[in-house]
Amino acid sequence: MLLDTTQIGDMLHVAYYDKNGVTKFKKYKLKEEDLFNWQVAKKLDKKKDATYVNWDKRPIKKVPTKFINNYRIVEYIENKIPREDYDEIFEYNMPRTYFVDIENVIIPGLTIKEAVERADGEITAISITGDNHKCMVLGTKELTREQIVNIQKRINKHFEQFGAKFEFSFKKFDSEYDLLYTFFAKMVSKFPMMSGWNVLEYDWAYMINRSKKLGIDPVVASPLHKLNGREKFPAGVCILDYMDIYKKWDRSIEIKEDFKLDTAGRDVIGIKKVKYNGTLNDLYRDDLERFYFYNAIDTCLVCLIHEKIKTMEIALTIAHLSHINIMKCSSPLAVTETLLCMEYLKNNKMMAIDPDKLETDEGYEGAFVKEPVVGKHKVVACFDYASLYPSTMRQMNISPENFVKKIPVDKIEEELKKGEYIVSVTGCCFGKEISILKTILNRLYGQRKSYKKEMFNCQLKKAELEKKLKELKKAA
Questions:
Q1: Residue 231 neighbours by CB under 8 Å, 6+ apart
Q2: Is 319 helix (H, G, I), strand (E, B) or coil?
Q3: pTM for the structure as a whole
Q4: Which positions ≥6 away from 313 have C-beta within 8 Å?
Q5: Digit-coded pLDDT (tens) for 206-262
Q6: Facing residues of 129 across strands?
Q7: Alpha-carbon span 175 to 188, nearest angstrom
Q8: I want to staple 210 with a disulfide (CB 3.0 to 4.6 A). Which of 42, 119, 397, 468 is the partner?
Q9: Model confidence pLDDT, tens digit, residues 290-322
Q10: Following CA atoms 183, 188, 190, 195 in sequence, which dihedral angle do they give, to the nearest 10 degrees?
């Protein structure tokens, strides 16, 4: 499964997960003829430019560059890398996952956002729990051997009703600098997948800001020694926030009271966080064993929530089906653009940048919302259309390259009589040749039906096996 792609100089590094869920890399040297991006052309120099077309059939040209854009990376991977590499990169393999949570000294009077931005409080503990149920806490205050054994017992007692057991260990560091540097350089850089509850907006952001104060370069967290974006995400490591995943895709809990870990733990597995008196600062000062126990439970809890609902697999499957970098899986734009780009390539069309439209901020009307009839009503009907948007797009043959024109609403009937186009109720006219987007949606819809049928058959087989098992037990 593709993790991400990173260009460093003239080398394209492709990170992916192998059969064991471990991160692997393949490197490709970009030749001089590969270092270009497509751009919509006003005029073509026929001596220099071959005649290529954009998705909307406009002429395009190659513009030399040091760094190829996302469209070109998709094109390079689809057309240039060896087939055996391609199959290995996009094989459906789930990553080994590590759940992380930090504790830090709380500065009174600050909002959470202010606390993260300022990062004035010392990081006092980092808990890491793997999907193998091994939990480690990193701290700057020593624990006795007896306390470490006690914490393991308390962890397993906490999750006794769920039937889960964890192996606990502790590592003490001489300073906060050593703790954070080791975590970045020796652990994060080797994580195939890092997750946690609110890990992006709090834990990761806090550690990045705190590292600046300590004089640590967080680039050591990347196996490629490169950070991406304002968030400073390490290239070659995936970080997904389980709270965001739970918000966006979980359907196991119909009504969510809030998105706190305590509430999610209660609703999903029936177990909440550790309770304590006073503040975390008090707990750190007065009861170190309980403090580290509290830190460990938070990552164990997220691990068990994941095992129960496996919502992360939805995000990973979306990324796999659309061949996008995993950390872009929650972006409908990234998913749609990549799917379109791959399908256009099959039809010898490219996705080029139009320099005239880069600076435009043109708005457009979104979904239609009907105004309600205010008042108390005796009979109320609710209509829920299955896959309304994709079904509409398939029915109307909607796709960017298939749009012809928009006509006034009062001209729709006249246009329909001509029979040249498919016309929507808004007056948008689309060509009748099967569009790229319809092709993609037909394929995805077919896969969905196939998987649902397979899932149904598996459930039937499971029911049959359970019935036979009961019969065998009675016979015995």
A1: 200, 204, 205, 208
A2: helix
A3: 0.87
A4: 94
A5: 999 999 999 999 999 999 999 999 999 999 999 999 999 999 999 999 899 999 999
A6: 99, 135
A7: 19
A8: 119
A9: 999 999 999 999 999 999 999 999 999 999 999
A10: 130
